[in-house]
C-alpha cells in the first residue's frame, strides 16, 4: 500500500479569497459560531479551485535561490545543493510545493502523482510508481527531490552515482507534516524565506477552514481505499493519512475508533459493523472503480452502515486528497461542509 499511498499530489486559495468566501469571517448573526451558509460558501470556493486543478503561487516576484546549501536528507546523508536551475521532484505533493514557492519554471520533469495542470506537459519519469533512472538523467536535473517511499532504491543510487544531489524527505501522512515538508523543500532549494511565507499562508487557511466546523457535530467517517478492477477493498485506520484530515475536519475516524491500529485493513462485514461510519470518504477514481455509489453499496456490509443506508459518500480527487501539500486547506474546506451536511 505504500506506493498507492505515496501522496498522489496537491495547492490552495489565498487567505483573502477563502475568508472572502466566508461572508466576513463565517460567524452566525448571533455570534454563536460559523453558519452553515459560510461553510457552504467556503466549500464552493474551494471546490471551484480544486476543479480547476491549478496551483496558486505566492504573491510577488519569484524568489531567487541562495546557494549552495547543505541540508539533512531523510536517508541519513547530508546533501549539498549548488544549483536549483533544473529541479526534478519525484513526488506530486513536493512538486506542488515547488510550484507554489514560485519555482515552477525551473522544474524539468514529473512523477506520475503530479497531476495538477501546470505539471501536465512535463515529461514523466516514472512507470507506475517506479522511477526510471535513465529518464531522470536524460533531463539533466541539477537537484532531485524524493521521499523515503521513492523507489526502486537502485534507481536513486544510479542518479546519485551520476553526481546529481538527491534530497530525500519524509512522507507526509498528517496535517502537521505539510509545513514541515514545505520548510525542508524551501531550505533545500535555497529559498527559506519563501517557505516561511507559504507556511504562514497555509496556517491561516487551515485555521479559517477549521473554524467553520459546526459546534456539537462529530460524525464518524470511514476512509475506504478501493480499486475494484484490482479487487482491492481496504478500510483506513490509524496512520492511513486520511485520519488526520478527518480529525481536522471535526469528525471521528471510524476505523481508528473501531480499533484498527494498522493504516489499512481488508474490508469485512465485521470491520464495517464495528466502524459504523456515518459518512464514507473515498478517492474519486476509487468510487468510479466500483461503479459509483450504486456499486459501492453492493459491497458486503456497506449497505448496513449508517453511511450506506443514507448514501452519505464524499469523494475527493485522487491527486489531492492525500497529497498533503498547499491545497490541503481546500480539502478541509470541502470536508467540513460535506461531512457535516444535514
Could you please describe the fold and organization of this structure?
With 342 residues, the chain is of the alpha/beta class. It has two domains: 15-56 and 205-339, Nitrogenase molybdenum iron protein domain (Rossmann fold, 3-Layer(aba) Sandwich), CATH 3.40.50.1980; 69-191, 3-Layer(aba) Sandwich (Rossmann fold), CATH 3.40.50.1980. Helix content is 39%, strand content 15%. The strands form four sheets. Strands 8, 9, 10, 11, 12 and 13 form a six-stranded mixed β-sheet that branches. The model is unreliable at 1-33 (pLDDT under 50).
Calculate the terminal CA-CA distance, rounded to whole Å.
33 Å
The CATH topology of the largest domain comes to Rossmann fold
Structural class: alpha/beta
Radius of gyration: 20 Å
User: Would you identify the CATH H-level superfamily of the largest domain?
Assistant: Nitrogenase molybdenum iron protein domain
Shape assignment: globular
CATH class category of the largest domain: Alpha Beta
Number of E strands:
13
Low-confidence stretches: 1-33
User: Which CATH architecture of the largest domain?
Assistant: 3-Layer(aba) Sandwich
Number of helices: 15
Q: How many strands, what sense, and barrel or not for the largest sheet?
A: 6 strands, mixed
Total count of domains: 2
Query: How big a fraction of the residues is strand?
Result: 5-15%
Whole-number average pLDDT?
88
Helix-strand topology string:
HHEEEHEEHEHEHHEEHEHEHEHHHEHH
How helix-rich are the residues, as a percent range? 25-40%
Keywords: Signal
Biased composition (Low complexity): 29-43
Organism: Streptomyces lomondensis
Region (Disordered): 24-43
Amino acid at each position: 500500500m505504500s506506493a498507492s499511498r505515496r501522496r498522489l499530489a496537491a495547492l490552495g486559495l489565498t487567505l483573502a479569497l477563502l475568508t472572502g468566501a466566508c461572508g466576513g469571517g463565517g460567524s452566525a448573526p448571533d455570534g454563536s459560531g460559523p453558519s452553515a451558509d459560510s461553510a457552504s460558501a467556503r466549500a464552493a470556493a474551494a471546490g471551484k479551485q480544486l476543479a480547476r486543478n491549478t496551483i496558486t503561487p505566492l504573491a510577488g516576484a519569484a524568489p531567487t535561490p541562495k546557494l549552495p546549501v547543505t541540508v539533512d536528507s531523510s536517508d541519513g546523508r547530508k546533501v549539498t545543493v549548488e544549483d536549483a536551475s533544473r529541479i526534478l521532484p519525484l513526488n506530486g505533493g513536493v512538486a506542488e510545493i515547488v510550484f507554489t514557492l514560485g519555482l515552477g519554471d525551473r522544474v524539468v520533469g514529473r512523477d506520475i502523482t503530479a497531476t495538477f495542470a501546470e505539471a501536465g506537459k512535463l515529461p514523466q519519469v516514472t512507470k507506475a510508481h517506479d522511477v526510471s533512472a535513465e529518464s531522470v538523467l536524460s533531463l539533466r536535473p541539477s537537484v532531485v527531490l524524493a521521499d523515503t517511499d521513492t523507489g526502486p532504491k537502485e534507481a536513486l543510487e544510479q542518479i546519485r552515482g551520476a553526481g546529481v544531489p538527491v534530497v530525500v524527505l519524509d512522507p507526509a501522512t498528517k496535517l502537521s507534516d505539510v509545513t514541515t515538508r514545505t520548510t525542508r523543500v524551501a531550505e533545500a532549494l535555497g529559498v527559506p524565506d519563501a517557505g516561511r511565507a507559504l507556511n504562514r499562508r497555509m496556517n491561516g487557511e487551515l485555521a479559517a477552514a477549521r473554524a467553520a466546523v459546526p459546534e456539537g457535530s462529530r460524525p464518524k467517517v470511514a476512509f475506504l481505499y478501493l480499486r475494484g478492477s484490482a479487487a482491492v477493498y481496504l478500510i483506513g485506520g490509524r496512520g492511513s493519512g486520511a485520519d488526520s484530515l478527518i480529525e481536522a475536519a471535526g469528525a471521528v475516524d471510524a476505523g481508528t475508533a473501531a480499533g484498527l491500529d494498522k493504516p489499512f485493513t481488508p474490508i469485512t462485514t465485521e470491520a464495517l459493523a464495528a466502524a459504523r461510519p456515518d459518512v464514507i470518504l473515498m478517492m474519486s477514481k476509487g468510487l468510479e472503480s466500483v461503479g459509483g455509489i450504486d456499486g459501492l453499496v453492493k459491497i458486503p456490509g456497506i449497505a448496513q452502515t449508517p453511511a450506506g443506508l443514507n448514501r452519505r459518500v464524499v469523494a475527493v480527487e485522487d491527486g489531492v486528497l492525500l497529497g498533503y501539500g498547499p491545497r490541503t486547506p481546500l480539502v478541509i474546506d470541502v470536508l467540513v461542509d460535506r461531512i457535516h451536511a444535514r
